[in-house]
Amino acid sequence: MMKSRPAFIIGTLILGLLYACQSTPELRQPVFTKDYDEIIQEIGATGEFSSVSFTVRAEKSSSYEPGHELMLTLHEGKILPADDHGLDSLAKDAATILINRVQNKKDYDWISVEFQIADQSLAGRKKVFVYRPD
Predict the structure, then answer these.
(1) DSSP annotation string for 39-108
(2) I need a surface site. Which of 3, 72, 73, 89 has the fewest CB within 10 A?
């Protein structure tokens, strides 16, 4: 009975270390160089979007280093290109505006731009484009 106690303690420590290695990295908040509402308005004007939302996410995958993401969601644009190439270009414009307004841009590994689109002719309701800051 005494021999199994050290094995139990070692096993518990190993499980604890594995859990700690899988935890989500610390969330990094962006520092904006301009008023947040002005940035959202500027991005919204690119496609006359009904609303623009913005979130920060931190993730850790078992095969990658921790990742920090700026996620931009653009809702129901009035002026949208009819194809993926045009949407990609519009997404790049929005991502460029955002990253150029973030002072601590090196804290982020990627920017994702998601279109929430009701028009089914635009190949689906949701389109996501991902960019890496320079």
Answers:
(1) HHHHHHHTTTEEEEEEEEEEE--TTS--EEEEEEEEEEESS--SSHHHHHHHHHHHHHHHHHTBTTGGG-
(2) 3
SS3 4: helix
Pair of tokens at residue 14: 């190993």
List, for residues 65-115, the tens digit of each pLDDT value: 667 888 889 888 888 887 888 888 998 999 999 999 999 988 888 888 888
Tell me the domains of the chain and their CATH numbers.
Answer: 27-131 (3.30.300)
SS3 6: helix
* Residue written as token pair 């290695």: 21
Residues 50, 21 contacting (CB under 8 angstroms): no
